[in-house]
Design a protein that fits this description.
The complex is a heterodimer. By secondary structure, chain A is of the alpha+beta class. Chain A has two domains: 107 residues, Uridine Diphospho-n-acetylenolpyruvylglucosamine Reductase, domain 3; 94 residues, 2-Layer Sandwich (Enolase-like, domain 1), CATH 3.30.390. In chain A, 30% of the residues lie in helices and 25% in strands. Chain A contains ten helices and 14 strands. In chain A, α3 runs antiparallel to α4. Chain B is α+β, with helices and mostly antiparallel strands. Chain B folds into two domains: 75 residues, Beta-grasp domain (Ubiquitin-like (UB roll), Roll), CATH 3.10.20.30; 90 residues, DNA polymerase, domain 1. In chain B, β1 and β2 form a beta hairpin. The chains are: A alpha+beta, B alpha+beta. The interface between A and B is medium-sized, with 33 and 30 residues.
Chain lengths: 262, 174
């Protein structure tokens, strides 16, 4: 690691002020950032820890929606979100392994936008709102590409607001060593339609499978997507699986998610 | 940066470079070399320690972020190296080279605590009531600890035998 200073603010305002320093970078659970620093792929002058900001930790009801503070750990979401958001709780319970879930945070995952991360699919499928220190961003506008988001320099994800679905589920075909998604599909059914978000597969990161959304909005059954096919164009090909394999998996995982949705 | 850690019940005041991981602080500053550095990026679990009772990868956390935390390493699981889990690992041959064993022991200690508290995992059949420590449940809960010698049969037997005995060792977490 290159040398850096650390600040540990206790309020969002102090964190935003500290992030104005040249080459400052937020540190949340560190499960991605610390390996990145070790590999010297990042050289922040200063890390601003977000883990001591109590306003950014925990789950709460906000007008029927579930608000999850940006610094809330995966383990907490797995344990506490299930009553209203079973798909989301199930997703959190399968991120990495227990040790990672005790440190990693939802805000860190969303802000990093790894193309194989789980949380971006939940945010997109719920039509969640990403709350930052300065504005609300719709999930549809937030994920802008590989490791890229609508966040400005120094902007912090302070919370994510998930509307309550009628039914939801996440199915992940995991890369067995890392447990990242080779293909992960999140299906969420709302009164005004179904949303389907796919992670692990797209070269530009998480995306919605709109044809499946239309079909499932008419009939929320696994058979509704049977006649559809997914193009391999724009999907990831790597040593774990070809684009065509991932395209096939998207449909399989979608059907499983619909069958398991609760 | 000044950092206060309580490790295995003993307070330590350290002055650390911000870059020092919790694992390196334990091994290099405090000479507690039980916790092992395997992959050093959170995949193998050899560095698993308990922080305020929860297991984490010590290699993926900066020591200065743990000011005021209570940390338990394998050295703190018992005073004589013979906690019920440690004894069971010996009895059931839960190791070959032994490099992953400290992490396995810390992780397994936390697993037994989680089971005792009734926390379900995503493979638990029932989300309410007591959790049955099936092989599938154990495999999921120990998934973060890899054994390159593949001593999983012995590791599983050891943990299951302690769970069945009901002699969950709480000294470390308390």
């Amino acid at each position: 690691m290159y040398a850096f200073d650390i600040e540990r603010p206790t309020t969002i305002a102090d964190a935003v002020a500290a992030l104005k320093a040249d080459e400052a970078q937020p540190l949340s659970g560190g499960q991605t950032l610390i390996p990145t620093l070790k590999a010297r792929l990042a050289a922040p002058s200063k890390l601003i820890s977000l883990s001591g900001i109590s306003d950014m930790i925990g789950l709460s009801d906000e007008g029927g929606a579930l608000r999850i503070g940006g610094a809330t750990k995966h383990d907490t979401v797995a344990k506490e979100a299930g009553a209203t958001h079973p798909g989301l709780a199930g997703l959190a319970a399968r991120i990495g392994d227990p040790a990672v879930r005790h440190r990693g945070t939802i805000g860190g995952s969303i802000a990093n936008n790894d193309p194989a991360a789980c949380y971006p699919s939940a945010a997109l499928a719920h039509g969640a709102t990403i709350v930052t220190d300065r504005r609300d961003i719709a999930a549809d506008d937030f994920f802008t590409g590989l490791f890229d988001t609508a966040l400005e320099d120094g902007e912090i994800v302070t919370a994510v607001r998930f509307p309550r679905p009628e039914a939801s589920n996440y199915q992940k075909f995991e890369q067995p060593a890392s447990r990242f998604a080779m293909v992960g599909v999140f299906v969420a059914k709302f009164a005004d339609g179904v949303r389907v978000a796919v992670t692990g597969a797209g070269e530009d990161g998480v995306f919605r499978w709109t044809e499946a959304e239309t079909a499932l909005s008419s009939s929320f059954t696994p058979g509704a997507v049977e006649g559809l096919s997914v193009s391999a164009d724009g999907l990831i090909s790597d040593l774990h699986g070809s684009a065509a394999y991932r395209a096939h998996l998207i449909k399989v995982m979608t059907k499983r998610a619909v069958a398991a949705a609760e | 940066m000044n950092t206060n850690l309580t490790v295995n019940g003993r307070p330590h005041a350290l002055d650390l470079d911000t870059r020092v991981t919790l694992l390196d602080a334990l091994r290099d500053q405090l000479k507690l070399t039980g916790s092992k550095k395997g992959c050093d990026h959170g995949q193998c679990g050899a560095c698993t320690v308990l922080v305020n009772g929860q297991r984490i990868n010590a290699c993926l956390s900066l020591a200065v972020m743990h000011d005021g935390d209570e940390i338990t390493t394998v050295e703190g699981l018992s005073s004589d190296g013979r906690s019920p889990l440690q004894a069971a690992f010996v009895r059931h041959d839960g190791m070959q080279c032994g490099y992953c064993t400290p992490g396995q022991l810390c992780s397994a200690t936390a697993v037994l605590d989680e089971i005792a508290r009734g926390w379900p995992s995503h493979v638990s059949a029932d989300l309410e009531g007591p959790v049955e420590l099936t092989r599938e449940e154990l495999a999921e809960r120990m998934s973060g600890n890899i054994c390159r010698c593949s001593c999983y049969p012995g590791i599983s037997k050891a943990i299951l035998s302690v769970a069945e005995d009901g002699t969950v060792h709480r000294e470390a977490a308390e």
